[in-house]
Known about the structure:
367 residues; alpha+beta; 2 domains; five-stranded mixed β-sheet; rod-shaped; disordered C terminus
Amino acid sequence: MDPRPRWYRIGWALPWxxxxxxxxxxxxxxPRPMAxxxxxxxxLVAFTAVYLTVFTRMSGRCGVPWRAxxxxxxxxxxxxxxxxxxxxxxxxxxxxxxxxxxxxRWVWPAVVGAAGVCxxxxxxxxLLRELAFLPVLCLLTAxxxxxxxxxxxxxxxxxxxxxxxxxxAVAEERLRFARDLHDLLGHSLSLIALKSELAGRLAECDPxxxxxxxxxxxxxxRRALAEVREAxxxxxxxxxxxxxxxxxxxxxxxxxxxxAPSPVPExxxxxxAVLGWVVxxxxxxxxxxxxxxxxxxxxxxxxxxVELTVTxxxxxxxxxxxxxxxxxxxxxxxxxGGRLEHGVGPGGGFRLAARVPVPxxxxxxxx
Length: 367
C-alpha cells in the first residue's frame, strides 16, 4: 500500500475543486425552482465526496474503485447535461478520477469520452469558442494525474525496497556477528578448556606448573573478553602474526608442535586479517578434533596472489559436512575475492588452504 496517509493522497485532488466555483455561482445566480437547486446541490456534494474517495486508492494496490468511478461519471455527466455549460467543468473531475483510478488500458477512452461530453455541452449553447479550454483541460488534467499516479506508485515501491534493504542489512549483520563470535570464542574457549584440564591433572603432582596453567587460563579468558568487546564495537582485526603467536601458545599447551614462517611478511590489511582468521580456525579444529602432533603453516606468495596452507598429521577430516566455522571462514575469504579449500592433506591429516588476491599496489615479492 501507499505508505503515506490518506489525507496526503486526497491532497492531490483538492486544488481541482476550485473549478466548482462555476457550478456554485450558477446555483446562486441562475433563477431556478428551489427543488432543482436542492437536487443540484445534493448531486454536487455527492459527486465531490465520491470523487475524493477515488484518490484514497490512487496507488492502485487496493484494486480499481469501479463503483466510485461509475458514480462520478454518472453524476458528472448527468449534472452537466441537465444544468448546462456552467456545469460542464465537472468533466474535468471525471477525467481526473479516470486517470487516478482506472487501469491503463481504460484511462484514455474514458478521458476522451469526458472531453467529448464537455465539448457537446458547451457547443449545444453555442459557447464552444468561449469555453474551448474546458475540453482541453480534461486532457491536460488526465496527463497530470497519470504522472502523479506513476510517482505515487514509484514512491511506494521505493519505500518497500528500503524496508527490504533494511531487513537484509539486519540479517547480514546478525550473521556477521554470529560468525565473529564463533571464530573468536571457539578458539579461546578451546584453549581455556585444554589448559584447565591440564591444570587439573597437574594439581597434585606439580602444583607450580598447575598454577602457571591456571594463570594462562585467566589470561586467555581476559583476552577473549577483550576480543568480544572489540568485536561488538566493530573494531576487531585479527592479523596473521598475532594469530600465529596465539596458535603457538595454544598448540604448545596441547603438546603439538607448530612450524610457521618467521618473521611474517607485511600484507595488506584485509588480506592479513583474513589469513589470521584462517590460522585461528585451523588451530581451533586441531585442538578440538585432530589430535595432531605437528602443525605446519606455509605462506606462498607470487604476483597477484598469496596462499596460506595449514596442515596437520592428525586424524583428518570427519565424514560429516564442514561445520559452521569453516562455512563462516569461506565467507570471509570470498569477501576479499579469494577461495578456501579443505580436505585430506598430502600425507594424511587435515589440510586447510586459502588463496587470496593481493592488490597491485600492495603485492609482496616471493622470497
